[in-house]
Amino acid sequence: MAIELAQHLGGEIISADSVQVYRGMDVGTAKVTYDERLAAPHHLIDICDLSEPFNVSKYYDMATQTIDAIFDRGGVPIVVGGTGFYIHALIYGPPMGPPSVPEVRKELEEQMEKFGHEALYDHLQKCDPLYAKTITPGDRNKIIRALEIIKLSKRPVSDFKLVSPSHSEKNYDFHCSFIHYPRETTYQRIEMRCDEMVAGGLIDEVKRLMKEGLEENSSAAQAIGYRQVLDFIHSGEADFAGFVAAFKQASRRYAKRQFTWFRREPLFTWFDLEDLGYEAVIQQIIDEFESSL
After folding, report:
1. Per-residue confidence band for 4, with pLDDT thresholds at 50, 70 and 90
2. 130: which of 77, 98, 158, 270 fits an S-S bond (Cβ 3.0–4.6 Å)?
3. Which residues of the chain form CATH 3.40.50.300?
4. What's the rounded Cα separation, in Å, for the pair 104 and 147?
5. What is the mean pLDDT of the chain?
6. Percent over 90 (pLDDT), the chain
7. Residues with Cβ within 8 Å of residue 162, at least 6 apart in sequence
8. CATH architecture observed for domain 2-96+164-291
9. 164: pLDDT confidence band, cut at 50, 70 and 90?
């Protein structure tokens, strides 16, 4: 759909996927193919190695630079992806707080591995109950980042001034669409997608990436699919059915969190593909965009 919109509008696609930035993480991210990249320009895919840390601040800087360059070429930037945190930062501005310190983050990641995410979430609740209410015990990266901010700044995360939802630092005119199927249809499609990834070589991909430092990159190693394969490999690959079930369950839960996240975003128009149909959704998006010009 993004490619078709890009071809119609003279657009270029900017990925908003926190894992597709990494080279080699292809099967488990359903990364766009070579032919798809030829059909429309794509940006912020395969831009760093696993040894290079990547975060939302870097994404904001690179995405805004890319948007400005597309505008300079007379094109239309089309941001596509499901990492809500990245999209939120792009719309409203980058998150506040001190920059990450590798040594502090590594220490917190080791604590996460040793004690589990629920224990660190409990600690966060004691340090900053207001912020803890805004995330779940399963939000590993957000828990670690919150505790990192608290440790570095000696202040709770909730003390930091948030960017107003009416304000975008770059003052872009965003036209936002949340394109979805009904939840049950989404879950069925997720299960098929997981099976296709496993059949398409996901386990072999993870084994190769382990040699390239996958497990040293906590964000990449926690990505859905990759985390479950790593657990499967470390368990001796004894329970294949259990691995697939865990992979599907984690994917369904992530989709549920995406529904919740984007429901809170006031700028997004929701399009039900099953109800409206593919071509009608594309036409509505085009009409809404062109009417604003």
Report:
1. very high
2. 158
3. 2-96+164-291
4. 9
5. 91
6. 72
7. 96
8. 3-Layer(aba) Sandwich (3.40)
9. very low
What pLDDT sits at residue 161? 55
In the chain, CATH 1.10.20.140 covers 102-159
CATH of 102-159, one of 1.10.20.140, 3.10.20.740, 2.60.40.10, 1.10.510.10: 1.10.20.140
DSSP string spanning 181-227?
A: --HHHHHHHHHHHHHHHHHTTHHHHHHHHHHTTGGG-HHHHTSTTHH
Distances (CA, A) of 228 to 90, 188, 219, 231: 30, 19, 14, 5
State the Cα torsion 35-39-40-41 to the nearest 10°: 40
- Residue 136, C-beta contacts closer than 8 angstroms, at least 6 positions apart: 121, 257
Task: For the chain, state the CA radius of gyration.
Answer: 20
Give the whole-angstrom CA distance, residue 105 versus residue 110: 9
Which DSSP letter does residue 48 get? Answer: B
